[in-house]
Amino acid sequence: MEWWVSMPKIELHAHLNGSIRDFTLLELARALGHKGVIDFSKVEHVILKNDRSLSEVFKLFDLIHIVTTDHSSITRITKEVVEDFASENVVYLELRTTPKKNDSLGMSKRSYMEAVLEGLRAVSSVDVAFVPDSEEPGNLSSPLLSDADNKYNGNNRKKIFVRLLLSIDRRETKEAAMETVSYNAKVFWAKLSLFVTAFEHFTSLLQVMLALEMRHFGVVGIDLSGNPAVGEWITYLPALKFAQEQGLYVTLHCGEVSNSKEIHDMLDLLPQRIGHACFFEEEHWRRLKSSNIPVEICLTSNIRTLSVPTIDAHHFVDLYNAKHPLVLCTDDSGVFSTSLSNEYKIAASSFGLGRKELFELSKNAIEFIFADNVVKEDLRKTFISAAKNQE
Ligand code: 5GP
C-alpha cells in the first residue's frame, strides 16, 4: 500500500452529498429515471463530466439533491462515505451537510439528520465513534442514543471518529425557513421567539438551533457554504455569532471568489477555521496569519473549479512555508473524483514534500479538529503508534 494511503489522516472539509460515489449517484439517478421523475439520458453526461467550473459544480449539486434527498438515500450515502474515508485510513472525519426538507417525502430537517445518524450506525466495515464522550450511553443524555453509538472501546477493530457540521446554504430563503420551523420542540420555539425579531433572515438560526439540539449526536459546529456568488453572507452573521456564543464551532467558506469586503468581514468574525482562501489579497493574508485561523485546503477542488490557475500557484506553498495551520481536505471527493490520499499524493508531487513532512501535516490537524480533548488524545496515540510502525 502506498504511504499516502496507509498513513493516518484527518478529513475536516467533506460535504456529504459532494462525497457520493459515482456508482451510487448513477444508480439513484437511473432509478428516478425509471420512475419518470427525471430524464436519465439527459443527466447521465452531467454526472460523468469531470471538468466543471464553480458555477457548473453548483448546477450538479442541484441535480444531486433531486436524486439523493430521501431518507434511505441519505442513510446509504452517509454509510458509504464513512466507509470510503475509513478504507483509506482516515481516523477522524468531520462530515458537513445541509439539512434538507422535502414535504412530499415527509422529510424535515431533523429527520434528514436522523437519516444521517442511521447511516453512521449502518457502517459495518469499521467501528464508528460519533457520540461525544460526555454523552456516552450510561452518562444519561438522550434516550435516542444506543449502546452501539460509540462502539470503539476495547477491541482491535479499525475505528474512525466522526463529527458532524450543519451547513447553512447561502441560498436558503426566509420563506423556506418559515416552512421548516415545525421540527422544533417547544423549548426551541420559546428560544426562537426571543431571537426571531432580531434576525432578518432566520433559516440560519434554525440550523444553529438544530445543531444545538443534536449536540448529543456528535454535531459540533456550523459551516457556511453554498454558491459564493449568491446572497450576502452578512445575513447569516447573527446566527453564526449566536452559534459561537453557544459553544458551537464555526467554519466559513471564505475567499472562493474575489470579494474583498466579504473576506475582510469574515475574518472579523474570527471563525475557528476557514475553507479555501483562494482570492485573498495582501491585507487578508496578513490578518489571517496574525489571527492563526487554520485553513482547510482543497487542492483538487480549487484546480477543477479554476479558483487557482495552476497547482504551482496554489497558496498552500506560502502558508506551509509560513508554518500557518493547514489541513489537506477533499471538499467533494465524489464530484471532483478524488480521495484524501490523492490530495496528499498531489501535495507530495507538486510541492516536493516527503512522507515525513506530510505525516506531520496530517498529525498537526489534530489541533484544529472540533472535537474534545479525549478524542485529540486518542488521535495523538494513533499517530504515535503509526509513526513507530513506519520506523
Ligand atoms: P450537502 O450539504 O448537500 O451534503 O453537500 C452539497 C452542498 O455543499 C452543496 O449544495 C453546497 O451548498 C455545498 N458545497 C459543496 N462543495 C462546495 C464548494 O466547493 N463551495 C461551496 N461554497 N459550497 C460547497
TrEMBL record:
<dbReference type="InterPro" id="IPR001365">
    <property type="entry name" value="A_deaminase_dom"/>
</dbReference>
<dbReference type="Pfam" id="PF00962">
    <property type="entry name" value="A_deaminase"/>
</dbReference>
<dbReference type="InterPro" id="IPR006330">
    <property type="entry name" value="Ado/ade_deaminase"/>
</dbReference>
<dbReference type="GO" id="GO:0006154">
    <property type="term" value="P:adenosine catabolic process"/>
</dbReference>
<dbReference type="GO" id="GO:0046872">
    <property type="term" value="F:metal ion binding"/>
</dbReference>
<dbReference type="GO" id="GO:0004000">
    <property type="term" value="F:adenosine deaminase activity"/>
</dbReference>
<dbReference type="InterPro" id="IPR032466">
    <property type="entry name" value="Metal_Hydrolase"/>
</dbReference>
<dbReference type="GO" id="GO:0046103">
    <property type="term" value="P:inosine biosynthetic process"/>
</dbReference>
<keyword id="KW-0479">Metal-binding</keyword>
<feature type="domain" description="Adenosine deaminase">
    <location>
        <begin position="209"/>
        <end position="382"/>
    </location>
</feature>
<protein>
    <submittedName>
        <fullName>Adenosine deaminase-like protein</fullName>
    </submittedName>
</protein>
<feature type="domain" description="Adenosine deaminase">
    <location>
        <begin position="8"/>
        <end position="122"/>
    </location>
</feature>
<keyword id="KW-0378">Hydrolase</keyword>
